Structures are given as structure tokens and as C-alpha cells.
Amino acid sequence: MAVLNEEQEMLRDMARDWATNESPVTEFRKVRASGEDHAYDKSAYATMAEMGWAGVIIPEDHGGSDFGFMSAGLVVEELGKTLTASPLVATTIAASAIVLGGSEEQKAKWLPRLASGEMVATLAVDEGAHHDPSAIETSVSGSKLTGKKAFVHEAHGADLFVVAATDGLYLVEKGAGVSLTTRKLTDQRSHADVIFEGAAADKLEGGGDSLLDDVLDRARVLTAAEMLGMAQQVFDTTLDYLKQRVQFNQVLATFQALQHRMADLFADLAQMRSAVEAGLQAVDGGFGVARAATIAKAEANRVLHTISNQGIQLHGGIGMTDEYDVGFYLKRARVLEASFGSSGWIKDRFAKLSDY
Amino acid sequence: MATQRQSEVLSDDEAFREEVQAFLRDNFPEELKNKGNLLAGVDGPTDESTTQEAWRKAVGKRGWGTPTWPKEYGGGGLTKAQAKIIDQEFAKAGAYNPIGGMGVMMFGPTLLEYGSEEQKREHIPPITRGEIRWCQGYSEPNAGSDLANLQTFAEDKGDHYVVNGQKTWTSGGQWADKCFAIVRTDKSDKHKGISFMLIDMDAPGVEVRPITMISGTSPFCETFFTDVKVPKANLVGEEGQGWTIGKRLLQHERTNIAGGGRLASMMGGSLGDLARKHCETDANGELADKVLRDKVADFEIRWSSFLLTARRAVEESKAQGGVSEISSVLKKLGTKLSQERSELLIEIRGLQGLGWEGDSFSDSEIEAVRAWLFGKAATIYGGSTEIQNNIISKRVLGMLDHQ
């Protein structure tokens, strides 16, 4: 765990208490059972916004607290532990695009409403099943945006889309010219293909040529923070289980084969935590962001993949049941691994950044 | 040296930085520039030149080779921030720290914690001046991973002990002046029968035989003790406290084996750069062998997150003080990754990367082969990876406490 300042510790403790007491995995089960497309509890999200969590990276003069990405990551990590279904990550990523690329007018118009939780926003970049920001065909002509975005996170709840087009990022409000096709994925959260047909689009003119890459780096570190919470929870739950389950008249935790496997996972988890925290801190420091974010997502992918599989294996048969939570983490893990850069894609990016 | 007036204007740290820069200008000989890795073999057979000796003495006099150790025992008495400034300025000037070895990395910190006042006054100052080489008397033929099974026995003879037995894997034993050893003083209790004592390597009855390794080098020895007299004053801590003290020392060893800094300096440049030099590239300047490219990226990412973990451990230990249980995680990860790197280096160079001797191979190619082979020891010594896994699962994860 990184050394935190006082305000970060308070924020993390508050998020941990709330997630544990008010948003345990049973709340996710309720969301799932509701069958609603937007797939989150709107009153819970309102509470989260009231606590200031939707405005952590938003400047103070636009209604946020400007605590930065490390702080946002702490909240997201805690919510990841209990699989809290909410549009917090999506909205924070979208808000970062407006912070980086928006005009004063755009910031004043949208950021306070995102910080207050009144509105939800999301980033729409990819146009196929694989993350590929180099393959964008969505285009804009006369402020009208046309194209199809695939598997957009939190699309059903979104009031505002930050859309990548061939010549930059645009803000598009839901409404005329915007339609959704639900894509129900294994994690049972909100995903949809979003079709834009001449939708009114307002360009983010600032942020320079690297705006899309910069926003994606922020998407990677925040996604990695959610994955860190998930990996930590699966590890902790599995360790508890091994200490309780008896076979051959012995607690499983006393078997050396299992002890050494847990030691391996513990070391993996230490690396993942270091990489994710360094990624979040790099965004706040503004130095070496691309490389740090790439390492963060790569390590999050690698370690959560392993831990989510081992979580099932070490739970044995009951890990395969819907009654146990561990399977939910596996399903959410794969969706997040594929988002904003799969392991293969992210290693290619790392090699490119390193000139080989 | 910064003038009075300058130091009033500058912050304390900046004034200290100027002091270090001035010291380097006055004392560091140009001919030793950037030769650190070749010359700093403090535990090795290096014959010191006059220039090297002068440099060692200059650094030793200030205590800057052991910057954070107490001034009263010859250390620098400096803060961690000042120690970092010394590191940075030495690196900038291409200067190496001539004070090192096991005395600095393992024995010194342990003696500062557990030694008597007399012992500290006797043994710490020569370490800070780089005058005495220490070796480690731990492993025995039947006490490797099961270290507490050691049988070397120290018999109480009133004012001294008489030591009999055999140690093995004594690093640098053939060049060492003194040995810190764990020996048995009580045969009735496996752990509480162990004591920590200091043995002169030139005492009558000490015999050293170098062991040739698969790398062709002989950095380790077998050490035989036959009726060796050891004064009682050389017992560190109390009789029976040796296991506790010895384990503490191992934490320092692990942190040093894997602690990032030293390992990072041994690891050299980016594997990607090397691969681009030795292997084909495509029109985009990327490695044409995409499988190798993926392997290199995969390694470099995990190596980065290991270095970040080492840095995080340092930051966290500042709050807790001293080395922590995380040393086992660092040892386990760092040694595995350095082995992986050696293997990838061979893959990148092909058969040219497997040279044993001869003019058709560069020094760095041959060194890499020896390092690859010798590196196989890293997951065995200092507590094997399997032992680290036991420590992590039992001590850190509490996997034995729930029966």
C-alpha cells in the first residue's frame, strides 16, 4: 500500500466502510436480479456522489475536490472489492476527457453536473470486439457525428458520451440520433453498442494531438484500480476459505502445495499493487504517464487473470456455484481485461513506447 | 566545501550536495571513473592499486561508504536523504562506493542492533573503512534449507570456546579476514541451542577449500574448524540467541540480494535495446521476431513492477523501521526475474551468447554466460525460493495458525 496523506486515508476508510456495510456483493446480486439495462442502483450512486466520489478528479471551481487520480483509485479499489455496480469509473474517465480537452464553457457546462451525480457520462472509443484506437471510422461532418461504437461501458445510464472520431474527441448528448443495442456480457453490467446517426456533436478542442491517448491512459489506470480491488478480495476470500475447509482431517491451509501457490499469488498481488498505484501517481505527477499506465494495466491483466482462475480452483466445487461470489469476480475480470487493452495489445504498446 | 555564506542561502540538503561535489573533485581519481562494477569486488580477490586505496581511504575517513551508520563507530551519521545525495552525486561523477561487502550489507547492521558496546567499537570502524573482509559461516553439508540443523559445535572451556565442525558455501572464504558464524552451543534444543559468534579466519585450526562452480569460478568455499579457540568476547548477544540474530541478518541479506539498487545496477540496460541490436527489425523498427518481442515486453513489464515493489517496500519500511517480512517477496521475485533476464539475453544473442572463452567472444558476452550460470544459485542461497514460500505462507499469510 502506497504511503497516503491524511485526506487520502480518510477517503479510503470512508469508501471501505461504505462498500463493506452498504454495498456488499448482495447489493450487486439485487442489481442483477432487477434485470434493468442500466444495471446499477441509482439511489446508491446518488449517495456516492453526495460523498464527493464523482468529483474526485474534477477541479474545485467546477464542483469537484481535485484530489487526483490516486485518490479516485482508492475509492474505485474499495468498490471493486465488493463488485459495486455503478457508473463511477465511466463518469470519471469521461470527466477527465473534459478536464483535459474541454473549453472553459464546456467545463462549466458539464463538470459540475458530473461531480454532483446529476449526470452520468461514458467514453466510447472502440468500434469492434477488440480495443483498437487506431481503427476509428466514426466521423463528423458539420457538427453531426456518425458511426457505431461497440461494447460501451455504462451506456444505458449515460446522459453524455465522449466519442472518439477520426479527427478528435466529441461530446454527444443522448437523444436524437443516438440509439443503443444492448450487449449483455458475462459480468451482467451495462454494455451496449451505440449507434450515432448525425447526432449533434461538440468537439473537445483542447488537449493537443495526444488527447485520446491521454484519456485512454486514465481509463487504464482507473480500470486497473477496480481490478486491484477485485484481485485483493479474491485473494483474501480464498485465503480465509483455505483456513476453514477441512479435508483428510486437515485444514487445507496446512498443505504445502497450497501454501506455495498462495505465496506465488501474494507476490503477484504485490507487483500488481505497486504497478497500479504507480500508474495512478504518475497521472497526478504528470510524468511518464503513458509508460506507467501501460505497466499498470498489463500487470492488472496478468495478475487478476491468474488470481480469478485460482480463486475458483482453490474453492473447489463450491467455487463453481452461483451461490458463491468468487465466480462473479472471474466474469467481471475478463470483461475488464479486454477493456482499454488486452494483455497482447498492452504489451505491444509497451514495446512501441520502448522503441522495439 | 560550501562557504559559510552559501550554506546560509542554500537549503541544508543543497549545501550538503555541494560538499559532496567538492569532495569528489578533490578526491576521486579520473582513472577510476566508470570502473565501479569491475573494481568494487570487496569480497573478491581484487588487488588494490595505490589509486584505489587512496580513494577507499578518502571515502572511509568520512564514513560516506556507510552514510547512515552512527558517527561514533565510523559511519557518516547522515540522514537517508543525505545518503541519497551521496548516491546521486557519486553516480553522476562515475564514482563507485569502495566500502562494501558482507560487512556492510549484512554483518554491520546486525551487530549495530545486537552487539555489545565493545564489539561495536572493535568491529564496526574497520568495516566503515573497508579494511576487514567478512564471510558468512551459516550453511553446512547437512544444514542447507534446514539451516537450524547445523552441527558445528562450540564447547564451553571457561574463558573461551573450542569450535569443531564444517561450514560450506562460505562466500569469499579464501579472501576473508573474519567470519560471522552460527554454531551449536547446546545439543538438546534445535533452535535455542544456536549461538552467534565471530571467528578469526587466520586462527589455528581454520582451513578453507574453494569449490569450483558450474560457472567455472570459485566464489564459495568449504571451511573446516578443528579445535579452533574462540574468545568468549566474540559471542554476539547471549548463548542461545544465535537463531534470532542469524535470522535477522538473513533479512538484511534478502533485502540486499533483491533490493533493487544493486540488482538493477547488475542488470544493465534495456533488453529491448539489446534485442534491436542483435536481432532483425522490420520496416517500423520493431523486432521482426514477434514472439521474442512479446517475451521481452512481458519481462520488462514485470521487471518494472518488481522495481516499483522494491521502492514501495522502502517507503513503507520508513514508517515501520528496518527491514520487513516483504523481504521474502522481494528475494523470491528479484532472483527469479534476474534468471529470466539471463535466459532472454542468451536467446537474443543466439550461440554467440553461449561463449565460454576465447577472443571470438567479447568480455561482456563471456561475463553474461558466467552470470547466467552463477545466477542459478540466487534462487537457492539466502533461503531458497521454496523456503521464502514457506516464510510468506506461514508468517505473513498465517497458513499454519488455523489447525
Structure overview:
The complex is a heterodimer of chains A (356) and B (403). With 356 residues, chain A is α+β, with helices and mostly antiparallel strands. Chain A has three domains: 6-115, Butyryl-Coa Dehydrogenase, subunit A, domain 1, CATH 1.10.540; 121-203, Butyryl-CoA Dehydrogenase, subunit A, domain 2 (Beta Barrel), CATH 2.40.110; 211-353, Up-down Bundle (Butyryl-CoA Dehydrogenase, subunit A, domain 3), CATH 1.20.140.10. Helices cover 53% and strands 14% of the residues of chain A. Chain A is built from eleven helices and nine strands. Chain A has helices spanning 6-22, 25-34, 42-50, 69-81, 88-101, 104-115, 211-244, 256-285, 289-315, 326-338, 343-353, and strands at residues 121-124, 139-141, 144-153, 160-165, 168-173, 178-182, 191-203, 246-247, 250-251. In chain A, the strands form two sheets. In chain A, strands 1, 2, 3, 4, 5, 6 and 7 form a seven-stranded mixed β-sheet that branches. In chain A, strands 8-9 form a two-stranded antiparallel ribbon. The longest helix of chain A has 34 residues, at 211-244. The two termini of chain A are 32 Å apart. With 403 residues, chain B is an alpha+beta fold. Chain B has three domains: 13-100, no CATH class; 134-243, Butyryl-CoA Dehydrogenase, subunit A, domain 2 (Beta Barrel), CATH 2.40.110; 259-396, Butyryl-CoA Dehydrogenase, subunit A, domain 3. In chain B, 47% of the residues lie in helices and 13% in strands. Chain B has 14 helices and eight strands. A four-stranded mixed β-sheet of chain B has the order 1-4-5-8. In chain B, β6 (206-211) and β7 form a beta hairpin. In chain B, α6 (102-114) runs antiparallel to α7, α6 packs antiparallel against α8 and α12 runs antiparallel to α14. The longest helix of chain B has 31 residues, at 290-320. Mean pLDDT of chain B is 88; it is low at 1-7, 37-42 and 259-266. At the A-B interface, α7, β9, α8, α9 and α11 of A face α10, α11, α12 and α14 of B.
